[in-house]
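for the writeup, i need someone to sanity check this before i put it in the appendix. the sequnce is what the collaborator sent (i think, or maybe the updated version? ugh). structure was predicted straight from it, no edits. if anything looks off just tell me and ill rerun, i have time this weekend
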Amino acid sequence: MADEMVRRAQSFVNLIYGSRIGMTVEEDGRTGWSTMYALTRALQLELGITSLSNSFGPTTLSTLTAKYPVLNSGNMPSENFCKIIQSALYCKGYDGGSLDGSYNPGVQAGMTKLKTDMGVVGLSAGSDLTPKVFKALLNMDAYVSVNSGSEATRSVQQWLNGRYLNRQDFFVIPCDGHNSRDVAKAMLLAIQYELGMADGVANGVFGPGTQSGIRSHPVSTGSQGTWASLFSAAMILNDQPIAFSSTFDSTTAGLVRNFQSFVGLPATGNGDFSTWASLLISYGDQSRKGAACDCVTRITPARAAALKAEGITYVGRYLTNPVVVVKPEDLPEKAIQEGELQTIANAGLRCFPIYQTYGRDASNFTYIAGRTAGQAAVNAAMDHGFQQGTRIYFAVDFDAMDSDITSNVLPHFKGIQDAIADDGNRYRIGVYGPRNVCTRVARAGHSTASFVSDMSYGFSGNYGYPLPADWAYDQIVTRTVGTADGAINIDNNIASGRDTGQGSFDPGRPARADVRLDPSVVPAMQTDVGKYMESLGYPIDGGTRSYQHWKCFQSTVIDHDDLITELSVKYKLRKALVQTSAYWEMRHIEPVDEAAWLATISLFNTVGKFKDTSTGIAKQRGLTLTGAWNYCLAQGLITGRGIADRTNDEHLYNAWKSSYDSETSALTSVFLIHMWDIAGKPDGDDKSPAMRPPRLDYVDSEIYDVLRRYQGPGAEAFEEAKKRMGLYYIMEKYNAISRNR
């Protein structure tokens, strides 16, 4: 809701400072960072700082402290200086008077209320404005409970502010009732201050000195004073139902036992080092030995024995490696290796599968990518022999902001969920990622358990967030176990028992050549392809395009299955690649395309000139057809008519007309174009390098490249290929079922 006083503040900063601070703000009456940045720059200008910045950083703070260590009604530098303060109060939701440039009683009352809400009113006279409070005034933190904030958490925040604000590196933290990165760091600073660390030494990092100090300050029933207060504060910030108190009593001990049981610690009821560590840092006590691990190295019998000796039962292994392995740093054993699961089972270990692509930022997480990942993971899990009911952990391995989770991660997991549901819920969905990612994905109903990347303690989604309620595995440290040929580098994980992986496996599905589609799978395949395309906005009835789903599926999958199978075996290229390219293109044919084809035919028949356009069910151009033909002929992959002259209208037209007239010719040409694309499209319009020769075990990145290159080198092709990938994995699912029956 717009606020008139905020609008006046925006008008003031624009009128007085806009031309001098390098920015203006929208006068909409809504508080936002842009307004706070403008007020910060205005303050810097008033302080004589020449290099203006959006940040209220060390220079601004030190300059303000040197010139005005205390601001009040008796020493206000100027009316405009005071109006900056008044404007900031308005934007924070406090009384700033009438924007008259006077530090009047209304402003003083507003300042006193602000400092009371911060918990710092006792550090200086009620209405005096000190530099650190000024800094806090010019940010977007709240000092009242917001969004159902916890009053217990707010009391901790106020206590921390009031006790430690005068320390050098402690700044006002929000008092909004929610834990956060800043609040978690403030807790660590408080611990360090109470350990006696000097200013400049205390840094809010859970380092060796802090850990050693905590070991010397256990708390238990009967403990009183500041350390008991800090412990109860840490419990509250981890969402534990405890009162903020300076006394550690029997009730506290019971609640501590509950927390210890939850995080996988011995339930002693005492605030020992391991419990302190679990409360203060995401990875907790890294000396703990967990019953689980994950690794990117093959489990051999010797390594399995080393893991067993270490007390490990559950092993996380990757379903796929999405990139081509050409050098050691590509992790040649990242994906589960042939025979490895049986080795795991023989050793009495159990395996939980992980699916991870190369997504390292929010842009790689979308609904379409999720649907693709879901079906790809199902296919891979079946290939390896994971039984029905296995939980697959889908990875979010980047520092996802809360906004990233909303805009990208949640739609991605909805896509995974839809793909798994369309497959009949053969497998369950887990999520691997920071605490906030795991919690929010679970709350949205998209996952059933969490594998928490707590080792990445600096991730925004770990710092200040409690351990997810549904955690199954908690990743805390990397270490090497075993010796000689049994040595293996692992991420050690605490196991909650919520997921026990799999201890026996179905026979794996080897990379066999494709066969004809089993008639029994065709109806389900047609249904799943149609549902996937509907999720992309392509209606079953075709909508404004020329062909309905059933017709495209009939022409590109069913009617010519013998031909596609024969050519797949001949060229060692998966049928699903050709089915995907052909079906996708046919679904995109529009009346305008068909009109262009007729115009091309008329032009050639009238004046002998050829005007190239994409034609036939697989939408192929004359230049592409002749380029692929020439390449495959030169490689001995085909025989027949000679090399086409790609500057000759008749040669181009004849190739084009063949694909226009014949579905058989068009589908054969899909294979030839793919073969040309894989070779780097010599003499073509795509400068992409040659790929590995065609093979039946192409990895994700190679499948993507083949599908993308078919469409061309333009930017649109790179985006469209992401959608084709999802279609490919559905096509491949049913081809795999057929060839493994």
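The radius of gyration is 32 Å. The domain at 161-280 is CATH 1.10.101.10 (Muramoyl-pentapeptide Carboxypeptidase; domain 1).
thx in advance!!
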